[in-house]
């Protein structure tokens, strides 16, 4: 899913990532633990509302543990794993689902299952 830019439901403005200790932020950045970021219509990372609904630093939408087994996120991809559930789908993604009309967010859940198996 790396490099993807796609719509996802955000139910509220909570979930802001906050780093009271700058060293923790630097370690998370250097270890590449920010797994999702909010972006604008041009796919540029942003902290600006409404694209980043909670003002998270660097537009962080999700972070994972260093071993990849834990993911903390604010958006709700479970609400749009089928294309008809999407809040917005760009031309590049339209019609790219499988016969069950699965959308690209389904891949996140499939990746988790594969990891566990």
Low-confidence stretches: none
Largest beta-sheet characterization: 3 strands, antiparallel
How are helices and strands ordered from N to C? HEEEH
The 3D shape can be described as globular
Helix content: 10-25%
Which structural class is indicated by helix and strand composition?
A: alpha+beta
Mean pLDDT: 87
Total number of helical segments? 2
Radius of gyration: 15 Å
Widest beta sheet: strand line-up: 1-2-3
Into how many domains do the coordinates divide? Answer: 2
Strand element count: 3
Strand content: 5-15%
Protein name: Phosphoribosylformylglycinamidine synthase
Organism: Tetraparma gracilis
If you had to describe this structure to a student in words, what would you say it looks like?
There is one protein chain. This protein is α+β, with helices and mostly antiparallel strands and 117 residues long. It contains 2 helices and 3 strands, in the order αβββα. A 3-stranded antiparallel β-sheet has the order 1-2-3, with no helix packed on it. The longest helix is centred in the last third of the chain and has 11 residues, at 106-116. 17% of the residues are buried.
Question: How would you briefly describe this protein structure?
Answer:
The protein is an alpha+beta fold and 117 residues long.
Topology, pairings included?
Layout lengths: L21 H9 L3 E4 L22 E5 L6 E3 L32 H11 L1
Antiparallel strand pairs: 1-2, 2-3
